[in-house]
């Protein structure tokens, strides 16, 4: 019985080892080239998705800023029980009251327009940041993939060089034993062999670093050398001269574009502050109130009012500015 049990356990271990080997081979056989890895990487990358979310949020903030030119509706509804104690007559009744007001901005000397421009520029800046995030991730993926191929090639060359030098060292050693060689040649061959072994160890370490970088970027186990496909050199897509490359960088670099939008946003912030602090704000207001059994008056009551509102934030700001300029002149 124990012999049968041990044999069955050995069979299951062999079957498990075979299954793991088949899984490893299938994973290696399904290795994809760089052109097929990049689209999936950009979809699941956290930094790229965060930049996309920032762009969506900036687009929504643009709609919010544009809403400053649309009328604003305020609704205030009240319901409760009220008791009025008055000389000669007391009232007890459930009260109902509905207040409606519509406010329309007429002109604010550029404040709302500055907010709309700032939101629009912020959306353009978020789009540039998204392009920068995509380009950075593309650069990291291409670098990690090509470093895998390069380190595999360097390790292969180092191993071949070590083997050739080892054969040469054995040949020089055999010649010295026969009396047909020089001991200095043997020593020189051993020095070359030691250098080749050091290069092979260094190449092996570089390959481990490249494999870890591949895991970090693609979040998957790196394939073997046979699973890597060397990309074609895009010579027809490269600029023909340094001047053309500089011109393309100045026109299409997303980091430069984001910095340019940041400077424009700062200018709009100045316009916004000037309009808010030194100029009035003109608004038209329409109000309506419907009430029943409110304030001791039984029955329905309706009141409609139309008026304009002007906000003048001038006095305190101008005074503070004059005070500050006076201190500056005294100094």
Question: If you had to describe this structure to a student in words, what would you say it looks like?
Answer:
The chain has 331 residues and is an alpha+beta fold. It folds into two domains: 1-30; 31-330, Outer membrane efflux proteins (OEP) (Up-down Bundle). It contains eight helices and four strands, in the order αααββααααββα. A four-stranded antiparallel beta sheet has the order 1-2-3-4, with no helix packed on it. A hairpin with a 2-residue loop joins β3 and β4. α3 (46-66) runs antiparallel to α4 (111-178).
Question: What keywords describe this structure?
Answer:
single chain, 331 residues, alpha+beta, Outer membrane efflux proteins (OEP), 2 domains, four-stranded antiparallel sheet, 8 helices, 4 strands, disordered N terminus, disordered C terminus
Number of strands: 4
**Tally of helical runs:** 8
Broad shape: elongated
Q: Look at the structure and name the CATH superfamily of the largest domain.
A: Outer membrane efflux proteins (OEP)
Radius of gyration: 39 Å
How many discrete structural domains? 2
Reported for the largest beta sheet, the result is: 4 strands, antiparallel
Tell me, rounded to a whole number, the average pLDDT. Answer: 79
Strand order of the largest sheet: 1-2-3-4
**Strand/helix succession:** HHHEEHHHHEEH
Helix coverage percent? 55-70%
CATH architecture of the largest domain: Up-down Bundle
Secondary structure class reads alpha+beta
CATH first level of the largest domain: which class? Mainly Alpha
Helix/strand layout:
Layout: H1 2-29, H2 34-44, H3 46-66, E1 72-86, E2 89-107, H4 111-178, H5 183-218, H6 242-252, H7 254-278, E3 281-294, E4 297-311, H8 315-330
Helix pairs in contact: 2-4, 3-4, 4-5, 4-7
